[in-house]
Amino acid sequence: MMGALSHIRVLDMSRILAGPWAGQILADLGAEVIKVERPERGDDTRSWGPPWLPTPQGDRGEAAYYLCANRNKRSLALDITSPQGQEVIRNLVTSCDILLENYKVGGLKKYGLDYDSLKQINPRLIYCSITGFGQTGPYAKRAGYDFLIQAMSGLMSITGEKDGMPGAGPQKVGVALTDILTGMYASTGVLAALAARERTGEGQHIDLALLDVQVACLANQAMNYLVSGNAPQRMGNAHPNIVPYQSFATEDGFMILAVGNDDQFRRFCVEAKVAYLADDPLYQTNAARVANRASLIPLLSEVILTRCTASWVGALENQAVPCGPINDIGQAFQDPQIQARGMQLSLSHPESGEAPAVANPLKLSGTPIEYSNTAPLLGEHTEQILKDAGLNPEQIQTLYAQGVISSRKAC
């Protein structure tokens, strides 16, 4: 069965995480994605280890970081700083639908590989530029990284334990969330541009900034500020708009209680044998509970401490009250629900035999996700890509001799 995007060809000239994440989404959906990398070094994340995927000989293989965002792609090791490499890109662009890049503003213009130049070759090209701060504005020429953007956007100001508590202070999220969200917006943007192209016949340029994305993804916290004029503060694991919606210590660990409405709160109180709290005007409604959280949370904390996590989770699930344990990542992958959903994969790897992978969460009934290959070796598909582009063996050998391309095959 053909993938939903099996008719689409993507030139992925991005590195690190945001752009490659978008490219991987498109590749999972069936698009042909050509990953353009520097010869010899490749994507920076190839060196971002440990951990490393070991080879059968016990040698150091690919970095886990690189493997997470480059599945289902083909690798072309090409020096785009050379005139010959630039000509290869222009050749490929004639048959591509989408180009992803995350160079600094103006970084590709000096090579004649910017949008204005390439649209002259292919007016139908959808060209997505991912930068830290966008193509305009006073910070446009600055480099932007996820950690920096988490800080500047305000995300770190609402992440971490509240002031006055042990360990208080701003915290980044435990994964590069801004990069991931930007990759998702990028994939959405290029698919929207594809839909528009069906009507207009024309491609377009997408200007996507990490800072814009993270500000947009502040969601309710951004609106809390815009409506009230008060900047939200760190609250640990508590929620600014819902109570009780946080972590609690149990007899043997911790659990999450995520009460989303008044009926759930009443059912929790009945199970916890504190039904009187649900009848108290101070706690009957969510608005009242938010206003009086300082008195309510100690009462709930005291009762939740009397039972173990498994006891609470089992009992509250029977009462349709959202709750759950706080798993580490190993425990998460052992969870029967995650296993039933097939979220852990094992893919064939040309050097290491096989490589673990995390599945794409999209479950499409008509065009399901297919996993054709793990993240490629550096330059693994160089020769085939160039042959497909019309280069003959002599031309390819000349590019090798000039150091414009490189390739790597499994031993």
UniProtKB/TrEMBL annotation:
Alphabetically, the GO molecular function entries are: CoA-transferase activity
Q: Which UniProt keywords apply?
A: Transferase
In terms of Pfam families, this protein maps to: CoA_transf_3 (PF02515)
Q: Which InterPro entries match?
A: CoA-transferase_III_domain, CoA-Trfase_fam_III, CoA-Trfase_III_dom3_sf, CoA-Trfase_III_dom_1_sf
Q: Which domain of life is it from?
A: Bacteria
Asked if the record carries the keyword Ion transport, the reply is: no
Q: What does the record list as coiled-coil region(s)? A: none
Question: What is the name attached to this protein's record?
Answer: CoA transferase
Protein source organism: Oceanospirillum multiglobuliferum
